[in-house]
Write a structure and sequence with these properties.
This protein is mainly α. It has five helices and no strands. The two termini are about 30 Å apart. Bound molecules: zinc ion (ZN).
């Protein structure tokens, strides 16, 4: 997890959400192959459908943010660990 240094909080939270979402989708797939329900988000938050939906939306937003890149000062100045080529964005 050393590669997170230098990122702003927003980029970091986005990264965490992407990882959580990715792992969850992976587990859902493996669970489906084994005829089990391994949707961790659903397991943890199934009792609160609203919260569960918000988590999915946040993961989606995090993915879009990863595509576009964080627009905060810190990341625009060049956040190496965000993996965004900020130089191109300034042109
Ligand atoms: Zn940022």
């Amino acid at each position: 997890m050393g590669g997170w240094k230098g990122c702003c909080t927003t980029a970091m939270v986005g990264k965490i959400l992407l990882i959580v979402g990715g792992i969850n989708w992976g587990l859902v797939g493996v669970g489906m192959l084994m005829s089990k329900d391994w949707n961790v988000v659903n397991m943890l938050l199934g009792a609160w459908p609203m919260v569960e939906a918000i988590v999915y939306v946040l993961v989606g937003v995090a993915a879009v943010m990863k595509l576009i890149g964080c627009k905060c000062k810190k990341c625009m100045a060049g956040c190496a660990s965000c993996g965004v080529e900020n130089m191109d964005k300034k042109m």
